[in-house]
Structure formats: structure tokens, C-alpha cells
Design goal:
The chain has 629 residues and is an alpha+beta fold. It is built from 20 helices and 21 strands. The two termini are 56 Å apart.
């Protein structure tokens, strides 16, 4: 719905102060579409509305959508930068360069502030007395490394408060499998345990040689002593240490923490590749998809990426190595230094191994972007291409939105209906709907489908009428938008039910049945009184199968949720003196309500947990109902 703000842009531009701050652009729906910062709000915001300036297609388009703006004054440009980062992260405006996903990275945490430290997995880096290693890009690699450290140095993993709780309980399984020296029992002194912790820290800092040498010696000794089981244990540990050491490939010898950033761009898509170097070793890498403007420069993209990425990560390295100079080099350094608490440098290496490392990151970014392009093509084949195949098979010129329907019940008990929606070959889960059948008793799928379809399309017609009366362009709800094709879970019978509903409501929507074979597998489509065979290797066939399975899954899931919430009311609940235990015993013995109804008092009394009185209650309940009906 449009909003009239009575906002005069020309007048408001005159009121802007010549101070640092953040400006926020709103569209006609009052949604935030752009956030920016400025040394002088007066000069910067005016530039957007000056026709003589070359703003680029992306900004030109944005300006046409601006209906009002607001601003927040700050004391410095650095404060404006921090605020800009926070607002972009919070509101994710359409015209800002945006990361397509947010990720958190795992750390290895060593609780050195404890008397008996532990080595733990952590998703955040806090300002406590612990030491953190990372971030790592693979949670699996972190867990493997922690397991290896515990096996090597026999450090505890429990949450016991030591030394306060020493001797309070028996040692855990880790002690018995020789993965912990049981400080909880006082089996190892605090000093000796600390030495093991120091060795573990040394290992995490990348000094693997002493461990490799020690394990090789122990493996050799065990082998010579004919203790082959012990030798195999040391061999496996040796292999694990080598694997961890190999992952941390040395990139330079200065031992510094660095992030290497480079990007590849194509049209409005870009990939930023980040290499994580910790203690002089490359510990991992990751990539981020970024939506950009058609003519955005690399410097602009990297500038926006740095602000968003490092405003959310708990760890700031000492140095960022980039492929190009960014626009706000000194300001970004100042901001990152403030977040780190130590000096941070942004550099563009021109030669040597550092420049080659940036080039390697750029090559990787290009590979990821190319692979993503190929993935998108394959995905389009599975979705848009599959929809085109279905349209061609049915002789339709165009299909975008498809709706599929299914009914689920247990012997007609608590019937429910499902409506799933696919647009351009992809599920649109926000438009899924479920129906609790109200007007049908017993297992009558046709009548249940008729009720579901009538309710769905009658509701849609009402919404369309309301939209028309109010002369509104947008939809009130998903029901007001009708599908290009209705898919029924079944053949001729289900299709005829749907056709009857369409005729009653005066609608003309193509209806197609998804026909299954004797093995409950999709075999073809029933359309206009003809069963059309479909190639079971085609993408169209695979899409039909996915839609059919999704409609069935959604109906079953709804039915299961009703049962799990105990909303399904059993008739046995109405019998006085029959509680949950006797109800279960009856259903277990007779399998159906009809069998219980036909049983005599003596037969009922023989059921476990039943007695003569309760059997009489059940018998009289059913026969009293029969007499009154």
C-alpha cells in the first residue's frame, strides 16, 4: 500500500547539515532501500538528486524510488561508518551491496583461566580468560582436531568444577579408554596437567614436529614389543597429526594473522574469496556471494564487503591483503583497529609470495563463480526447463504457478487436505495451505477434495472481489492468486471432482491428474480425458514426482501433527472408566472400533487391564448408542 508522506525532497535537501552522519533512503512503502555514510550529509545526499552527475544505472534506478530520506548526525566519519555497518546489517537494504548469506566460524577454545583447562568447540570469541584459535572454516575439522588433542594430551572434557569437585564421583568413560588422566579423581597433579595443556597450546600454535617424533618412537617401540594393537593406535594418531599439519600450509614465515581477499565478478553477481592465515599458516578459506550493480568497481565492492563482513566477525586479523586499493583505506584501518584493539593494516601486495597468494584467491573466486553459473544452469533445467516440458506435453503456452492437492486420513478418521504451490518449478512454501475437513464423515477422498477446492477458490474469489472494490494493485493473500495449472493426486476421478468445482464457481483453470501405477509410482498425466505418457528420465517427470511427493508429505505431516497434539478424539475417550491404559489395551487387542463394538462382555473382560465392570461399561456404551441411533 502506498504511503503519502507529504515529503518535499527539495525542501528537505535545504535543511541537511554539513556534518558527518548516516542517511537512510525510504521507498513508497516506507521500506529502507539504501543506507550510506557521509563526511558532509549536505553535500553527499544532494548528489543523488543532481541530474548532471553520472551515478550509474543502479543508483539511477534507486533514486527514482526514493520517496523520503532521514539522517542521523554523528561526531565523526568513523562513528558514521560504524553506524552505517550496523544499519545495513539490521535492515539489509535492496540497493546496498549485500552479502547473500551470513556465516559464523568455529574456534578452538582453551579455558586457560581454569585450574584444569579444557579444549572446547566455540562459535564465538568472548573477552574472557580463555585462548582462542581460529576461526576455522570447517566445523568438522575443528571437532577432529579437538578429539585428537584430547587423545594426545589426555585433557578432560567434562563440566566439573575442579578442584572443588575432586573425588565427588567416579571417573568417566574417557578415563577408562585412556583419553583422560582423570584430574577429577586427583590421579594427575595440577602441575603435570598444566604441562600437558602447554604442549596442547604448542600444538595448536603449529609446532607439530615434537608430537610426530614422539608418536613415531612409541609406534616403533610397541611394534618391537609385539604389542600390535598399541602400535596401530599410535599409527592412527600419527596419521591424524599429519593430516592436521598438512591442512595448515605455510604461506609465509612472519607468523602473523592475515586475511586475503579477492573477487571475481560477472554482471550483477560476484564472489569474494577469503583466505584465513593464522600464525603464518593458511588454515582455511571461504567464499561469499555478493549482489552488485552492473558497473560497480572492484574497489567499491570490496569496500562494502569489508564493512559488512568484519562488523559481524568476532576476530579481526592484523592485516588484510587485497587485490586493489579500497576507497576508504585509512578510515577502514582506523575502524578495524578500534574493533581489534591493536593496529590493523590494509595492504595491496605488488610482488612476491603475497601477491601470488592474492592472485590464487582471485583464481579461486573465478572458479567458484563459474561453478555457480553452471549450477544455476542445471537448476534452471530442473525447474524452469521442467515446467516448459510439462507445458509442452499438455499443449499449454505458459505455466508459472502450479498448485497440487492431496488428502490424508486414517480409515477416514480426522481427514485433512494439503495444498502445495510451485512457482517456476520451485516450491513456494509461504503459499502452502492445510485444511481440516469439516463437512465429510468417513473415508471419502472425493468429497474431501471437493470441500478443499471449494474453500480454496471461493476464498480466492472473495479476496479478488475485495481487491477490485478497493482498487488495490497488490494481493491481500496468496488465495487471490490463481494457478496456471491444478494438479490432482490421482486420475480421472480426482480430476472430475476438480472440474465440477471449477464449473460451480465459474472458473476456467486447466486441471491435470498425476496418475500412479500399481507400485504407487508416477506413470503419466491425465489431461482432457486422455492419459499422457511421460518420459520417466525427463526433468518434467522428475518435477511432477517432486510435486506429488511434496503434496503427500505436507498432508501426512499435518495429519501427524494433529495426532501428536492429541487433537484426534477417540470415541473410547467418551466411555466412563476407560482411561489411557485400557483404551490402548482395547485397540491393541481388537485393532478397530467395529471389532470392539461387536465383542461381548466376557470377551471384553478377558483383555489385560480390563475387569467385569469396565467391560460392562464398554458393552453398554456401544449398545446404548445403537439403540438411540
Amino acid at each position: 500500500m502506498s504511503v503519502d508522506f507529504s515529503f518535499n525532497i527539495e525542501e528537505e535537501l535545504k535543511k541537511l547539515p554539513g556534518r558527518p552522519g548516516v542517511y537512510i533512503m525510504h521507498d513508497e512503502n516506507d521500506a529502507i532501500i539504501y543506507v550510506g555514510k557521509a563526511i558532509s550529509l549536505k553535500n553527499r545526499v544532494r548528489q543523488y538528486f543532481q541530474s548532471s552527475r553520472n551515478k550509474g544505472p543502479k543508483i539511477e534506478q534507486m533514486v527514482t524510488r526514493i520517496r523520503r530520506f532521514e539522517y542521523i548526525v554523528t561526531d565523526s566519519e568513523l562513528e558514521a561508518l560504524v553506524l552505517e555497518c550496523n544499519l545495513i546489517k539490521e535492515h539489509r537494504p535492496k540497493y546496498n551491496t549485500m552479502l547473500k548469506d551470513d556465516k559464523t566460524y568455529p574456534f578452538i577454545k582453551v579455558t586457560v583461566g581454569e585450574d584444569y583447562p579444557r579444549v572446547l568447540f566455540s562459535r564465538s570469541m568472548k573477552k574472557d580468560k580463555s585462548k582462542y584459535y581460529g576461526p576455522y572454516t570447517s566445523a568438522g575439522a575443528v571437532k577432529d582436531t579437538i578429539d585428537l588433542i584430547r587423545k594426545l594430551y589426555k585433557l578432560r572434557s567434562c563440566n566439573r568444577s575442579l578442584p572443588k569437585e575432586i573425588g565427588n564421583d567416579r571417573p568417566c568413560l574417557n578415563y577408562h579408554i585412556k583419553q583422560c588422566n582423570a584430574p577429577c579423581q586427583g590421579y594427575v597433579s595440577k602441575e603435570e596437567y598444566r604441562r600437558s595443556v602447554e604442549e596442547a597450546l604448542d600444538f595448536l600454535n603449529g609446532n607439530h614436529s615434537p608430537v610426530l617424533k614422539m608418536l613415531e618412537e612409541k609406534m616403533q617401540q610397541a611394534s618391537e614389543a609385539m604389542d600390535f594393537e598399541e602400535a596401530i593406535t599410535y599409527r592412527d594418531l600419527l596419521s591424524s597429526v599429519r593430516q592436521v599439519a598438512q591442512k595448515q600450509k605455510i604461506t609465509n614465515g612472519d607468523g602473523e594473522d592475515k586475511d586475503v581477499l579477492a573477487l571475481a565478478a560477472d554482471g550483477t553477481d560476484a564472489v569474494v574469496q577469503v583466505f584465513f592465515i593464522r600464525g603464518g599458516r593458511l588454515i582455511g578459506r571461504d567464499h561469499f556471494f555478493v549482489k552488485i550493480g552492473l558497473y560497480d568497481k572492484k574497489a567499491t565492492i570490496l569496500n562494502s564487503f569489508i564493512k559488512q563482513f568484519y562488523s559481524g566477525t568476532p576476530f579481526i586479523p592484523r592485516e588484510l591483503m587485497l587485490e586493489v586499493e579500497v576507497e576508504e583505506h585509512e578510515l577502514l584501518e582506523q575502524w578495524l583497529t578500534g574493533k581489534r584493539g591493536q593496529r590493523v593494516f590494509i595492504r595491496v601486495p605488488k610482488k612476491g609470495t603475497k601477491e601470488k597468494l592474492v592472485e590464487l584467491a582471485r583464481e579461486n573466486a573465478a572458479i567458484v563463480l563459474n561453478q555457480d553459473r553452471e549450477r544455476i544452469k542445471r537448476e534452471e533445467g530442473r525447474t524452469i526447463g521442467a515446467v516448459k516440458e510439462i507445458a509442452q506435453l499438455l499443449g499449454m503456452s505458459h505455466i508459472s504457478r502450479m498448485e497440487a492437492y492431496d488428502i490424508s486420513n486414517i480409515s477416514g478418521f480426522e481427514s485433512v487436505g494439503s495444498m502445495v504451490v510451485f512457482e517456476k518449478g520451485k516450491p513456494k512454501r509461504s503459499d502452502y495451505r492445510k485444511f481440516k475437513i469439516k463437512s465429510v464423515d468417513g473415508p471419502n477422498d472425493y468429497a474431501s477434495l471437493e470441500e478443499v477446492l471449494t474453500r480454496r477458490f471461493a476464498h480466492g474469489l472473495e479476496e479478488q472481489k475485495e481487491l477490485k472494490e478497493k482498487q488495490m494493485d497488490q494481493e491481500l493473500g496468496s488465495f487471490s492468486r490463481f494457478p496456471d495449472l491444478i494438479l490432482m493426486d490421482g486420475g480421472k476421478g480426482q480430476v472430475n471432482v476438480a472440474l465440477r468445482v471449477m464449473e460451480t464457481l465459474g472458473l476456467n483453470i486447466p486441471i491435470c491428474g498425476m496418475v500412479k501405477d500399481d507400485f504407487h509410482r508416477t506413470r503419466g498425466l491425465y489431461y482432457e480425458n486422455v492419459e499422457l505418457p511421460i518420459d520417466d528420465h525427463s526433468e518434467g517427470f522428475k518435477l511432477i514426482t517432486r510435486i506429488q511427493d511434496e503434496a503427500h508429505r505436507f498432508a501426512i505431516e499435518y495429519h501427524r501433527s494433529l495426532r501428536s497434539k492429541e487433537q484426534v478424539h477417540s470415541i473410547l475417550d467418551d466411555i466412563t472408566g476407560i482411561g489411557p491404559a485400557r483404551r490402548k489395551a482395547l485397540m491393541r487387542s481388537f485393532q478397530s472400533l467395529q471389532a470392539i463394538r461387536e465383542a461381548g462382555e466376557e470377551e471384553l473382560a478377558r483383555i489385560p487391564s480390563m475387569n467385569a465392570a469396565s467391560a460392562r461399561q464398554v458393552y453398554e456404551f456401544f449398545h446404548r448408542k445403537e439403540q438411540t441411533t
